[in-house]
Amino acid sequence: MASVIRTDNLTKTYGELRAVDSVSLSVEKGSLFGLLGPNGSGKTTMIKMLTGQIKATSGSAEVLGHDSLKDGIKVREVVGIIPEQETPPSFLTSSEYLSFVAKIRNIEGIEKKADWWFDYLDFADKKDVLCKDLSRGTRQKLMFAQAFLHNPEIALIDEPLINLDPVMQRKVKNFLKDYVKAGNTIFLSTHILEIAEDICTDFAILHKGKLLHTGKVGELKEKGVHLDDFFMDLLERS
Ligand SMILES: Nc1ncnc2c1ncn2[C@@H]1O[C@H](COP(=O)(O)OP(=O)(O)OP(=O)(O)O)[C@@H](O)[C@H]1O
Ligand SMILES: [Mg+2]
Fold first, then answer.
1. Is 36 helix (H, G, I), strand (E, B) or coil?
2. How much distance in Å is there from the Cα of 165 to the middle of ligand 2?
3. pLDDT at site 2
């Protein structure tokens, strides 16, 4: 299988702090890759470097063959991104925001595509509501829709389910599973291990910026090991 995301000794320092410390990993096409780790372990920093939102201090990163350090604009053009705790522009309605994204990304037939998302995530009644007046979960639904409007081959999503109710969580999880079955790749960060165990095919564990482990979720399941037990043991030993 071809690897669609690759990092080699990727590092980000803030003064003395090594937020991400020499991380080398590879993500295969068609995987649902979960980047796991406690608060402050470097997950968001990894996603920001991969998408060229922040410059790495050293090392290299490539997404779909594009250099994240030198050509972040190209990476952001081809991937979908749901940033951590990002909210859509307060002054646009939900539907205006999706039209705005469609213009930037040259997406045709936006009305139909937007309607599909409004129906799928059950927020058609909020189409014409200003984003500033949306609930947190509805804003997250909108951020989810914007990331997938252009059917990206890869989406990098930072804690995508945290504000969603159980019904919506299930919908989003099913969407992500189907998305990778169709040959796309998802790179998601989470510290909710049940979500990772439920939907991820592959996982990596970061701790204090360092990559402690990469593996297949299926292999743990075959051994009858729960991901949360594995995670706790690994952290205790490190
Ligand atoms: N702009 C910055 N300046 C200084 N330190 C930063 C900056 N951004 C992140 N950090 C630090 O880098 C480390 C990694 O942060 P990061 O946000 O990547 O963690 P995370 O794994 O996403 O955590 P969480 O699970 O809480 O979202 C933390 O110690 C954080 O305080
Ligand atoms: Mg984070």
1. strand
2. 20
3. 87
Instruction: Please give the CATH topology (third level) of the domain spanning 23-237.
Output: Rossmann fold (3.40.50)
Q: Taken in order 40, 211, 162, 230, is the CA torsion positive or negative? A: negative
- Cβ of 45 closer than 6 Å to ligand 1, yes or no, is yes
Residue 65 carries which DSSP code? T
Say if ligand 1 is within 6 A of residue 41 CB: yes
Each residue of 27-53: pLDDT tens digit?
Answer: 999 999 999 999 999 999 999 999 999
Closest-lying ligand 1 atom to the alpha carbon of residue 48: 18
Q: What is the 3-state secondary structure (H, E, C) of 137-168?
A: HHHHHHHHHHHHCCCCCEEEEECCCCCCCHHH
Q: Measuring CA to CA, how many Å separate 179 from each of 104, 111, 155, 172, 226? A: 23, 21, 10, 10, 25
